[in-house]
Design brief:
Mean pLDDT: 77
Low-confidence stretches: 6-24, 133-138
Shape: globular
Number of helices: 5
Largest sheet: none
């Protein structure tokens, strides 16, 4: 299950109560790979039609894979996201929305290195949890 980002829950806090500064990746491709590795790109079991959820998750996965492949310099992130929007084709609105979400994640990572540590912790935890149900392509 995906948890909300809460820097107070990170392990490795200093004794004086301040969180330790982790050695974090500082490139957009690193963030994209962490987001791809985490539990956020899996649909949850719900008692409703999940076609829209699955389509959104797949679109975000495609954007993150492309961003990781482009591996832009941090200063070139906006240009890379704009390139991805145009490469994905019409309609541009959904892709633009996903790219804005990725940009927001980047801003959070830049302002709070603990966000990267949290993403890494989530990716590790997700990798250790057994998968429930069957992985189906539908």
């Amino acid at each position: 299950m995906t948890m909300a980002y809460d820097p107070a829950q990170l392990e490795g806090s200093k004794e004086d109560g301040q969180a330790a500064t982790p050695n974090v990746p500082c490139r957009p491709a690193d963030l994209a790979n962490l987001l791809l590795a985490g539990p956020g790109l899996r649909s949850r079991q719900r008692a409703r039609d999940q076609q829209a959820d699955k389509a959104g998750i797949e679109l975000k996965r495609q954007v993150l894979v492309r961003l990781a492949a482009l591996d832009p310099e941090p200063e070139q992130l906006d240009e890379a996201l704009e390139q991805i929007i145009h490469e994905m084709g019409r309609p541009h609105g959904p892709t633009r929305g996903v790219c804005l979400s990725v940009r927001s994640d980047w801003e959070t990572a830049c302002s709070s290195p603990h966000f990267i540590a949290w993403l890494l912790e989530q990716a590790i935890r997700d990798g250790m949890e057994p998968r429930r149900g069957r992985n189906r392509a539908d």
